[in-house]
Amino acid sequence: MIKFENVSKKFKDTKVLKDISFDIEKGQLVVLIGLSGCGKTTTLKMINKLIKPTTGRITIDGEDISRKDPIELRRNIGYVIQQTGLFPHMTIRENTEIIAKVEKLDPVKISEKTEELMEMVGLSEEFLDRYPSELSGGQQQRVGVARAFALDPDIILMDEPFSALDPITRTSLQEELVNLQSKVRKTIVFVTHDMSEAIKIADKICIMDKGEIIQYDTPENILKYPSNDFVSEFVGRNRIWESPEYIRAEDIMINEPVTVSPELTIGKALDKMRTMKVNSLLVVDGPKKRMLGLIKPKQIAKMKDRSTLVKDLMLRDFAFAGAQDSIVDLLRVVDDNSISEIPILSEEGNLMGLVTENSLVTTLSQQYFEEGEVI
Ligand SMILES: Nc1ncnc2c1ncn2[C@@H]1O[C@H](COP(=O)(O)OP(=O)(O)OP(=O)(O)O)[C@@H](O)[C@H]1O
Ligand SMILES: [Mg+2]
């Protein structure tokens, strides 16, 4: 784990980092994001001691890095900088192997590792003898990433590695990074200006402004619960629609839908439907509201005997969803089952809420209307 404790940085008289504290868990991908000049690169470079804090302390796995030899520290920290930082007069092989050679590792092992790294970043071996200028920007960037992994470090620092690329190459490298990370589980600190990029790749996002941390949270929480106007503005109101999987049933469901007991008569159930102005009743049992079935006016209408009990008439076979299911899942349930209301159940089958057609439409329409506008 990387831990920043009250870290500040002054360049001459200007304070560019103001007392920041945060933790980066092992195996997580954390994105530092913010406007130009807010201190992202400064924060990143402190982790491998390219910049020293003016005050405060940084520890890695409990060890204060100010006491560590920088060379030794950097052996365990890969670093990818913007525009790749490849040496133009060296081939791709030489660029990739340079650190391992400086470390005097076994040449056979180095060579094997290089081939493995090329495969990892999706470049064929024919590139190894070329020079960086003979590769496209995206290919150079892949080499930059491969090189950062060369000594198999635990930590990788990436400073806007994809910012110079076209959107399509960029998107595919982001996806590859996510895939790669799911296999290697390194601790990665990634700097970007781009919120879409951050949301796509991050376990946690650290939003910075003028040398301070404004919010440090998961992409989902940043999208749903921005801590202040700066974050909302930065995130953009409609950003959540780029990740609709973060809009979940529990965010849009009615928490106290109208229910009936299985022992009630259908006459009483019909009265309840009328007074509560609902199209169906959810039949639940016990204090935990175990969901047993559904009852609809159509079924009741067919039944002459009003003293029939709800439990003898209810539909026991009904579609439902879970609280964590996304709006995309819910729309699928609506579509597959031609229904307009979805009971939301816990894993034990207890009723937690109800998503109605109305709540789906209201949620979906939010992306087309300004805040406060009456629909
Ligand atoms: N060596 C330095 N000497 C003086 N000031 C510096 C130095 N390095 C950075 N700064 C200042 O510190 C502030 C933070 O710089 P930093 O490079 O960390 O920003 P950043 O968030 O990475 O910005 P960008 O998105 O533009 O890369 C800026 O105002 C910058 O001008
Ligand atoms: Mg920077």
From TrEMBL:
Domain of life: Bacteria
Membrane topology, from the record: Peripheral membrane protein
All residue ranges annotated as the CBS domain in the record: 253-313, 314-371
MF (Gene Ontology): ABC-type quaternary ammonium compound transporting activity; ATP binding; ATP hydrolysis activity
Pfam families, alphabetized: ABC_tran, CBS
GO terms under biological process: amino acid transport; glycine betaine transport
Signal peptide: none
EC number: 7.6.2.9
GO cellular component, one term: plasma membrane
Enzyme class name: translocase
Catalyzed reactions: a quaternary ammonium(out) + ATP + H2O = a quaternary ammonium(in) + ADP + phosphate + H(+)
Localization per record: Cell inner membrane
Cross-referenced SUPFAM superfamilies: CBS-domain pair, P-loop containing nucleoside triphosphate hydrolases
NCBIfam families tied to this protein: proV
Family note: Belongs to the ABC transporter superfamily.
Quaternary structure, from the entry: The complex is probably composed of two ATP-binding proteins, two transmembrane proteins and a solute-binding protein.
UniProt-recorded name of the protein: Quaternary amine transport ATP-binding protein
Protein source organism: Proteiniclasticum ruminis
